[in-house]
Design brief:
The protein is α+β, with helices and mostly antiparallel strands and 194 residues long. Helices cover 13% and strands 31% of the residues. It is built from five helices and eleven strands; from the N terminus they run H-E-E-E-H-E-E-H-E-E-H-E-E-E-E-H. Strands 1, 4, 5, 8, 9 and 10 form a six-stranded mixed β-sheet that branches. A five-stranded mixed β-sheet has the order 3-2-11-6-7. It starts with a helix and ends in an 18-residue tail after the last helix. It comes from Paenibacillus vulneris.
Length: 194
Amino acid sequence: MSANQETATRVPPGQTLTQGFPVLHYGSVPYYNDMSLWNFRLFGLVEEEVTLSYQEFIALPRQEFRNDIHCVTTWSKLDNVWEGVAVAEVMKRVKLKPEAKYVMLHAEHGWTTNLPLEDFLKETSLFALKHNGELLTPDHGYPVRMVVPHLYFWKSAKWLRGIEFMASDKPGFWERNGYHMYGNPWKEQRYDFD
């Protein structure tokens, strides 16, 4: 298979490759002056709520992940290298109630997005701290960004602050504003009418 053919199999329909890393978000970019005020919550359908401080979170074991990302606005970026914390590592710290089937990602400014629990728990999903060897910039989600590479990139919430475990699916910010509830780039699930 040629390089062009291989690339074609990695780029979903309607997407265009970019070498850059476009910045897209709603609202202002949060800047943190005092990381002692930052924390990360695991709550909802859990036996006991867990809150990690910034120091506790960045001390978690890290690993490297490589993936392609696809934005709903039609750009794709291949061969990203992330350093971060595997979802499985964070999940060691919490016990879910059996009725938990979905998660809501909670980020700064009240921003949210939903995921089925099975997608959140995939081995490819991670909490990113670095991208291509550099700490995330504020524009790209510093200090922690969710990365769910098999879905459109709006599901990879920037400025993540917590995970809520839920029994049923409900829309997050963009989903309430017309985006698809799931967001599979290979099926072009961009908007709720797709």
